[in-house]
Amino acid sequence: MNSADTLLAVMGPLPQWFNFLAMAAAILLAAVSTLILLVMFHKKKRHRRRKHHRHEERQLNPTLAETGGLSPVRENEKSPGQTPPS
Description:
45% helix; 0% strand; rod-shaped
């Protein structure tokens, strides 16, 4: 007589509901352990904080009023891309 026969003789056959309960518990244990591992090893995306610059500190391009306005209109000079008057 081997040990498996002895164990079955002591315990007797298991009811069907107990087999179902053991299988459901094993599936639940596997799902929970997988979920815990995923949560532990999940890397969160780290957002870098950007420095906010104040608008007063920026050096802006001067306006036409600050530079003295538009340059005078050229009358006799040739500008590129124009044909001479005939």
